[in-house]
Each structure stands twice: as structure tokens, then as C-alpha cells.
Amino acid sequence: EGKITAELADRALVMLEIDRDGFDQWDKRIIETLIHKFNGGPVGLNSLAVAIGEEAGTIEEVNEPYLIMEGYIKRTPQGRVATANAYRKLGLKPPAGAQAELFGQ
Q: What is the pTM of this model?
């Protein structure tokens, strides 16, 4: 028929392993690594890339814009930092003093 139904879209997202928040496996891997391996940051882009086995340019151009726009990570002069939203996404309680979400929300 040429129509995309909600059911078809849901099946495609499941097949692509994209969750309800729009996270794919790499997005989740980035915040998991940032939190578990680097204690929430700050961590430099190259160190993060090596830790997850992805090119720094790919992280910066493909994954980061979404993660920053949605308030999961912040880019600071010292490096990438997980926000309270990132901790909550993983079902974790943000540590005291964790970076607040973007725009103070």
C-alpha cells in the first residue's frame, strides 16, 4: 500500500534496536561508558572513543548532537560529562553534584 503504520514503524525501531527515547546501541554504550568507566566525566572525546571502540569523529558527528540536544551529556572545556538525565536513563540515581540537565530543567 505504501503507507507506514504505527505498527510498522514500531517493528522497524525494534529491528534497529532503537528504544522509546531514540537511543540505539551506540548512544547507550556512550553514556554507560561515560558513567561506569569514567565516573560521569569529564572525559576527552578521544579517550571515550577508544573506550567504546568507535571513531572520535563518528561520536562527535553522529551520536553527540542527539545526546547533547536531549540533555544526556554536556560538552565542557574539560571534556564530556554525563548529566542527571543520563544516570536516570540507566536506572541509576545521579550522584550528589551531578551535572544538571541542559537549561536548568
A: 0.75
Give per-residue pLDDT as tens, 52-65.
999 999 999 988 99
Would you list the domain boundaries of the chain? Answer: 22-104
CA angle, corner 34, sides to 71 and 55, nearest 5?
95
Rounded to an integer, what distance in angstroms lies between the CA atom of residue 49 and that of residue 76?
16
Q: Where are the alpha helices (DSSP H) in the chain?
A: 6-15, 25-36, 45-52, 56-58, 64-69, 84-89
For 22-104, CATH number out of 3.40.50.280, 3.40.980.20, 3.40.718.10, 1.10.10.10 equals: 1.10.10.10
pLDDT tens digits for 21-49?
777 888 889 999 999 999 998 999 999 99
pLDDT at 12: 67
Distance, CA of 14 to CA of 53 (rounded, Å)? 24
Amino acid at 20: R
